[in-house]
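Section 5.1 Outputs to date
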Amino acid sequence: MKATTIAHPIQGLIKYHGLKDAKLRIPFHDSISVCIENLHTITTVETVNSSKKDSVIINGKEVVGKDFERVEVVLNRLRNLAKYSGGFKVMSKNSITGGKGLGFSASAFAALGLAACAALDFEIDYISLSEVVRLGAGSATRSLAGSFAIWYANKNGKSYAEPIVEPETVDLGMVIVPIFSTIKTDEAHSEVLSSPLFKARLKYVENIVKKMKHAIKIGDVATIGQLAEEDSLNLHASTMTGEAHLILWEPETVRIIKEVQKMRREGIPVWFSMDTGPSVFINTYTDHIENIAYRLREIGFSNAITSKVGGKPFLSKEHLF
């Protein structure tokens, strides 16, 4: 059988950083994200009963090495649960490919898990599927949940995500500026553990997660933006002070931050946010996103993308092959 799923990548609002269990991808603390409506991953999975091997093509290239191993972890888990002995053919494509820190690993593994289950005609409960896709990318749990979602590090012995509110209940708009980088996210997650600021971050996050969850529930866009900006600076401070002194920002990142600060001094309600990469999210109310995107394009960022809040992954009949 063949199945295709479309999923949205995420912006981390309160980011997770570092893994308590790297193999199972269990984080040290809860985290919160929001899905990006205007970006997506589309993934087609086909079962191949006559083969014992899997083939994986992502953005037009055959996947090998560690990236292939990450996909295999998820496929093998579903293969065992479904008692399936054949192979899979997987083809996946992101809506854009020119930036780092845009949450596409989240949408890729959420789409993979849902499409593989559909191709296998395998029924699995939501929490179990969330825990399976987490094995490929932790944030995939939140892409699977859709909208604004909280990923629990440990809730009744399980680590999964669930939505906080429906997408249309919060008037959040985003402008996204993709920026290229060669640094792998997993490098930052392992490196941050050596930072003298990491323990302080763990104490700080517990309180800010509660504040963010409350702000989302009452639709307080200003507080959502402020907290996401504060958390971004906290996260990158921890990353920069690890043993390798990883600087994830690029010069373009700083230019955008300064432009956001300038707009805010002018009275525009706008806040910046970065995940573990140089790409920048600008958070605001939906009626400001086009004006903000115009300002960024005027200073050279022609690739600025506007978006509202995205929903859950969904099945599609438009297969990639």
